[in-house]
Amino acid sequence: MKGNNIMKAIAAIPYIIYQLVIALPLIVLASLITSITTIVGCFVGDGHFWGYYPGKLWSRFICFILLLPVKVEGRENLAKGQSYVFVANHQGAFDIFLIYGYLCRNFKWMMKHQLRKMPLVGPACAAAKHIFVDKRGPKKIKETYDKARDTLRDGMSLVVFPEGARTFTGHMAHFRRGAFMLADELQLPVVPLTINGSFDVFPRTAHRVTWHPMKLTIHKPIPPEGSGPESEKETMEKAYEAIMQSLDKKYQGYEDNPDQ
């Protein structure tokens, strides 16, 4: 076992050098170009176009330049022109690239308000009209949900990580109800997304990328069947079960996340 670990470490050295010398400078440059393009494009043109396609290409480029294989299953489950509330497990930072690059649906993110302050990315997300969740009081919460309601029109969808924080172990913690309350109020289908491999590529405690395939599974939509707290709870449980069942077996099972 010790010998295998040593061999894996030796084999990883060329990939680490490649990341530092080639991939990282190109990713920084691509991030700068994408952010400026998104900000300027949203200012002078169609915010739905410029708020989505530059980010999609940027995400695909990052996976490509890091030589990460990506597999997608279930796109046939989605209907053209339908708005959805997508809910996904949150394995790591590469969840963003996997969904943005390969879901192939125009959508807005629902994200923590602290991300607005990130260099380059924060201003670009604000220009693209992604939704920053601000829980600093009832008024801020109401503003967040009002914006989400206005966004989910004309086929536009929303992507939410109901755990609210990246996992420390690869396992799922509990879901928060916000996304399911919104879907229930607007009577929109909820689509579970299972992310596999992102935790192996770049867990939240890592300092470098590890080569590993990633997979995005798009499950069948869960249609609204009633309304109210019981309906929300039932939809949330169905979504949780669908995501859990498609996780790699080593990450199946609930584990508490102290960051939630």
What brief labels describe this structure?
single chain; 260 residues; alpha/beta; seven-stranded mixed β-sheet; 9 helices
Topology:
Elements: H1 2-44, H2 47-50, H3 53-65, E1 70-73, E2 85-88, H4 94-102, E3 107-112, H5 121-127, E4 131-133, H6 138-151, E5 157-160, H7 178-186, E6 190-196, H8 198-201, E7 214-218, H9 229-246
Parallel strand pairs: 1-7, 2-5, 2-6, 3-4, 3-5
Antiparallel strand pairs: 6-7
Helix pairs in contact: 1-3, 1-5, 3-4, 7-9
Would you give an account of this structure?
By secondary structure, the protein is of the alpha/beta class. Helix content is 47%, strand content 13%. The protein contains 9 helices and 7 strands, in the order αααββαβαβαβαβαβα. The protein has a 7-stranded mixed sheet with strand order 1-7-6-2-5-3-4, sandwiched between helices. The longest helix has 43 residues, at 2-44. The chain is globular, with a radius of gyration of 19 Å. The mean pLDDT is 90.
Shape: globular
Give the overall average pLDDT. Answer: 90
Estimate what percentage of residues fall within beta strands. 5-15%
User: What value does the Rg take, in angstroms?
Assistant: 19 Å
Unreliable stretches, pLDDT < 50, 5 or more residues? none
Task: Give a brief description.
The protein is an alpha/beta fold and 260 residues long. The protein has helices at 2-44, 47-50, 53-65, 94-102, 121-127, 138-151, 178-186, 198-201, 229-246; strands spanning 70-73, 85-88, 107-112, 131-133, 157-160, 190-196, 214-218.
